[in-house]
Amino acid sequence: MSDQQAATAALKRTPLFDRHRALGARLVEFGGWEMPVQYSGIIAEHRAVRQRAGLFDVSHMGQFRVEGGGALDFLQSLVPNDVAKLSENQALYTQICLPNGGTLDDLLIYRRGDARYMVVVNAGTMGKDWDWFAEHAAGRADLTLANISDETGLIALQGPLAQSILQPLTPAALDAISYYHCAPGAVAGITCLISRTGYTGEDGFELYCPADHVAALWDAVLDAGTPHGLLPAGLGARDTLRLEAGYCLYGHELTEEITPLEAGLGWTIKLNKGADFIGRQALADEKRDGPRRKLVGILPRDRGIPRVGHTIYLADQPASPGARIGEVTSGTFCPTLERPAALAFVPPAHAQPGTPVAVDVRGKLIPAEVAPLPFYKRPR
Amino acid sequence: MSQTDQPENLKYAETHEWVRVEGDEAFIGISDYAQDELGEVVFLELPWNEVGTAQFKAGDRFGEIESVKATSELFAPVSGTLARVHETLKDLDKLEAINKDPYGQGWMLAIRMSDPAELDKLMDAAAYTKFLETAGH
Question: Which residues of A touch B40 (CB under 8 A)?
């Protein structure tokens, strides 16, 4: 056994930190934050989300407000997806790309009203995202930017029972909020933005509220959900859930060196949206020529868990340097699949599901095969 | 750290394996602290088919343990010949014994010691508890 203890000095804490400690959470460093990785156990929390419900603190994520007559043009110029097609209280998944097509971050954009948008970015990238936004907004009098990350609390209620747990707490008609839409509404008397979004592959809601009210909101949802079998869930289950659902995690499947097209996000790239955007030329070229690598699923056929950084070889030429075809970007034991699974980038020629490969799991070659994504799709 | 348990009658390695001596055999597993750090164990690789043949020197790797979130190597605290492996743990459904009963049903293997004096180099419960505290665990 070897152990590593991350320095916990200078880590940021969400307003729910004391709640996590009181619940007996194991705390870890994540993106500069001290966050709960698990409470009762990753597998139990994962299963609670798939079968009932789980409650996550995601207050570490960043939020920017973009408002004004130029807000739409500005956002259109920064992201490949089409912000113009958003109706009021609709959300959009997209990325911020560099001129070479690499990914600065992936994010959600909410249209909150005429010329009013809220942008939600990853915690670990919030600083560089904010700099990017500020730099590109410099000199523009037609919009205002505000970084509201510190004053915004965010919890995610995820799982098939999410709506039945939340509905008694709010006068908002949750049935009327469709996937990737939101509505303002009080939850347990606290002013919230109720968003039908998530990162688990299940139905659920993300609740934005003022940071100084998020503890009361957390308590209310936890109390309402506990009789239904809801569990507080940490970053560990969040990761196994998103991996099964085939969602990219920034820093793993998306980086400044990985384009959204490589990561299988072509459905979010709108080259002909009628507005130029940073990275458009690079993505157009890549789309024309085909990406040089593709994100695929990897399912081992033998014992062993492929982890981030493990090398993937062609099965029939293992361990010869030329047969190295890619690298695992995320890998774990998947509680719903009840087996290990991984995400990896391989050349398109080897991306066909069923392609036999071998993964070098710490010096041992484990037979595996390329598998289609997602690994898990919820029954509807 | 959360409160973990270090029984008095065992010896401990800095790599968090414990040793219980029975005659000339050293039974080995991982400590309560180690299982707690790892979280739920999902795979265990041991020299299943090498009883009577595998030879270990103190510090040799004897296996690998995986939890949902991490992988760790397992190291032999003492030298000798592999005398037993805990076959029950071949069954993935039984691996929870390592989490629930790390010093009992979570035992992994036994080594017939070639140099019992090596036991003196391991920590007793008090020293291991102090080790966990002072190492910033």
Answer: 41-43
- Provide the residue ranges of all domains of chain B, joining segments of one domain with +: 15-134
Chain B residue with Cα closest to A43: B40
A171 & A36 share domain: yes
Task: For residue A225, give both structure tokens.
Answer: 């959900």
**Beta-carbon separation of A2 and B15 below 8 A:** yes
pLDDT digit string (tens) for B98-124? 999 999 999 999 999 999 999 999 999
| A179 plus A47 within the same structural domain | yes
Residue A360 placed within a domain:
yes
Contact of B4 with chain A, judged by CB distance below 8 Å, is answered with no
pLDDT tens per residue, range A193-220: 999 999 999 999 999 999 999 999 999 9
Number of domains comprising chain A: 3
CATH code, B15-134:
2.40.50.100
Tens of pLDDT along A77-92? 999 999 999 999 999 9
**In the structure encoding, which two tokens stand for residue A264, read together?**
């299988």
Range of the domain at A300: 293-371
Residues of B in contact with A341 (CB under 8 A): none
Residue A134's CB is within 10 A of a number of other CB atoms, namely: 12
Residue A95 near residue A254, CB atoms below 8 Å: yes
Burial class (CB in 10 A: 0-12, 13-18, 19+), A269: buried
Task: Specify the CATH number for the domain of residue A73.
Answer: 3.30.70.1400
Give yes or no for B11 touching A (CB within 8 A): no
CB-CB under 8 Å, B2 with A42:
no
